[in-house]
Design brief:
Radius of gyration: 23 Å
Mean pLDDT: 94
Helix content: 10-25%
Oligomer: single chain
Number of strands: 32
Amino acid sequence: MRKIIINTLAIFVTISLHTHAQKRGEVPTFQWGTTGKQIDLSWAAEVGSRVEDNQSTNTFKVKDFGAQNDSNYLSTQAIQKAIDACSNAGGGKVLFEPGYYQTGALFVKKGVYLHIGAGTTLLASTDINQYPEFRSRIAGIEMVWPSAVINIIDTQHAGITGAGTIDCRGKVFWDKYWEMRKEYVQKGLRWIVDYDCKRVRGILVSGCSDITLKDFTLMRTGFWGIQILYSNHCTLHKLTVNNNIGGHGPSTDGIDIDSSTYVLIDGCDIDCNDDNICLKAGRDADGLRVNRPTEYVVVRNCIARKGAGLITCGSETSGDIRYVLGYNLRAYGTSSTLRLKSALNRGGTVEYIYMTNVVADGVQNVLAADLNWNPSYSYSELPAEYEGKEVPEHWNVMLQKVEPVEKGYPHFNHVYLANVKATNAKQFISASGWNDSLTLNDFTLYNLDVEAEKAGIVAHTKKFRLTDIKLKISDNSQIEFNKNSQLKKNIRYE
């Protein structure tokens, strides 16, 4: 008992420290329990942008290019002219005077830092025609999709900074989705409605390196908040994402790291309808074709509020997700503290996931791991009435079968969750493999102090370790263990 008390106290001491001063290259030391393995986190020193945002003293004011501080005036072209001029001059900052500016899609160029200062709000146009379409990746497949409100594409040394606000005014797209979903579900098309309802993302960073996003507030995004796609060495620092204003925004993830590497997420506060911070790597046959991993990601000093997962891996796992470190984190009312999800046609491996020093209150699960998540969404079947008819290109992409079928089996290995204090949880754990051959492998849960309504289940696992676990379960249930190989447990029920 003394050991548990000391370790639990250490959680609060560690989390209370002011850790935002940590710089790139600094990696604290963590305790993961007795695993018999040497854990190497040296890669965590290399994450984040390698370029600061103040390399150039050039400044370009959007008002000088015709932008108007008028919420009814569309300033897209004027702001874009300022961005282009800044890039052509070798880079610098694009500046706004305080006020409200309406805009459609903007494209940040090399060397440009779009500075949205305190007192400035960009209001996204609600007209879908203001967001030209191009080929991108959405929810795991490559297809033609509208541009985001702010796009950073195929460039380097750029970013978005400042303590202002980007209001994406996405409710018009939320309402469109909910109406379409009613119709699609009735037709057996739940699996494709998210792809047919083309909704505008908040920020897209695609094919880039050394990108910095910091200090601003992003709100009411039509679809995902921030997507980092096919990129490397990006920093997301002290961002606030709030997608739970004025309605129920579907699939409004906060931050999605999608087939990208060496990413730092630091000091962010996220309130959304779906996954708060999510790591993705492609879906099904198309994701296996692209075969690009998400790896070397650090998430630290962040808060997750409403949403589906403080840190989520999946459900798009095809290209692999690995080497993820999360620490000094808080979750308030989030569905899961750590969430791993995939499907039996998704493929890919999720491994070497480390999460520690966490305080959670009101979560649904401390740990949730599911190899067969949300079948109505995860599996694509063409209803009989559409057989033989011409369908959109992305329907055929989604309908492509993974062969051989074993290539679609996902694998979850080497997961570490340590030093967690959770109160008012619905359930401690829901961790299940699929069968005796497709198991959750080598999970270590260490020094967890949890108060929950229910204990939960651990099933179809191999080398699953629960050590120094203290549970206070209000319905007096204990963890249900079913078909686990080499299970080790040291659990104290109070």
